[in-house]
Amino acid sequence: MKFSIIVATDKNRGIGKNNDLPWPHLPGDMKHFREVTTRVTDPAKRNVVLMGRKTWESIPEAHRPLKGRINVVLTRNADYEVDEEVLLADSFENGLKVLEMEEIEKIFVVGGGSLYAHTIENPDCEAIYITEIDQTFDCDTFFPEVPEGFEKKALSEPIEEKGIKFQFFVYNKSS
Ligand SMILES: NC(=O)c1ccc[n+]([C@@H]2O[C@H](COP(=O)([O-])OP(=O)(O)OC[C@H]3O[C@@H](n4cnc5c(N)ncnc54)[C@H](OP(=O)(O)O)[C@@H]3O)[C@@H](O)[C@H]2O)c1
User: Fold this and answer.
1) How far apart, in whole angstroms, are the C-alpha atoms of residue 3 and residue 50?
2) Which of 37, 73, 92, 96 has the highest local Cβ count within 10 Å?
3) Residue whose CA is closest, atom 30 of ligand 1?
4) pLDDT at 162
5) Domain that holds residue 70
6) pLDDT category, 31, cuts 50, 70, 90?
7) pTM to 2 decimal places
8) Distance (Å, whole) CA 138 – CA 34
9) Residue 23 belongs to a domain with what CATH number?
10) What is the pLDDT of residues 54-63, one digit of tens each?
11) Cα R_g (the chain), whole angstroms
């Protein structure tokens, strides 16, 4: 099953600090994330957001599960409890398997660092959506280098919020 990755990185590919984002809340980036991961062409289908257990816990309770999308959380803890509508899996491969019963359009890996590292070299990774933030922040979690074989395309002009400049890109696998 093909899938995409979506991430926001700073200039050093930093993505997280203390299980939170390293930068102040950027509404424009959140809107972009919501739109890219929610948008479907077939209204009978939904997209999937697949994430590691720590990323799940980093989402404020009031905002999870991420609405309008099928939420899949990966954990090796068999006793882990989540809301009824959230799917759990103990590996990335089993995460894709639990989706076989669902009417889905696209799958997005939405973090965190461990899941990005696990999936970025996967041949089924067809696109990487990156918000490039033009600053450095104090980070303890990082995004891997984009492998060879992807073509970079800008999806927006540079944007500035709270004095922080960022821009949306997509890397598509070249055929
Ligand atoms: N900037 C961004 O776009 C962005 C996006 C998402 C997250 N983040 C940040 O990234 C940080 C979290 O990343 P992280 O690497 O520490 O944690 P993570 O990848 O979110 O979660 C790690 C946990 O997920 C489970 N897991 C991961 N891979 C698995 C696999 N293949 N099979 C089964 N379970 C698996 C394990 O849970 P158990 O320990 O329960 O077994 C593991 O401890 C936070 O700071 C967050 O804010 C940033």
Assistant:
1) 10
2) 73
3) 91
4) 97
5) 3-106+114-157
6) very high
7) 0.98
8) 25
9) 3.40.430.10
10) 999 999 999 9
11) 16
Q: Is residue 168 in some structural domain?
A: no
> How confident is the model at residue 29, as a pLDDT?
98
For a pocket test of ligand 1, which of 76, 91, 132 has the largest count of ligand atoms closer than 8 A to its C-beta?
Answer: 76
Tell me the CA–centroid distance for residue 68 and ligand 1, in Å: 22
Query: Residue 100 domain-assigned?
Result: yes
Residue 164 within a domain? no
17 occurs within a structural domain: yes
Instruction: Say if ligand 1 is within 6 A of residue 52 CB.
Output: yes
DSSP 8-state assignment for residue 18:
T
Rounded mean pLDDT of 31-49? 97
Separation between Cα atoms, residue 123 and residue 30, nearest integer Å: 28
Q: Ligand 1: does its nearest atom lie under 6 Å from the Cβ of 95?
A: no
Q: Which atom of ligand 1 is nearest to the CA of 76?
A: 41
How confident is the model at residue 102, as a pLDDT?
Answer: 77
Tally the domains of the chain. Answer: 1
CA of 113 to the centre of ligand 1 (A): 6
Q: How many residues does the chain have?
A: 175
Q: Would you tell me how many other CB atoms lie within 10 Å of the CB of residue 57?
A: 12
pLDDT digits 0-9 by tens, 118-168: 999 999 999 999 999 999 999 999 999 999 999 999 999 999 999 999 999
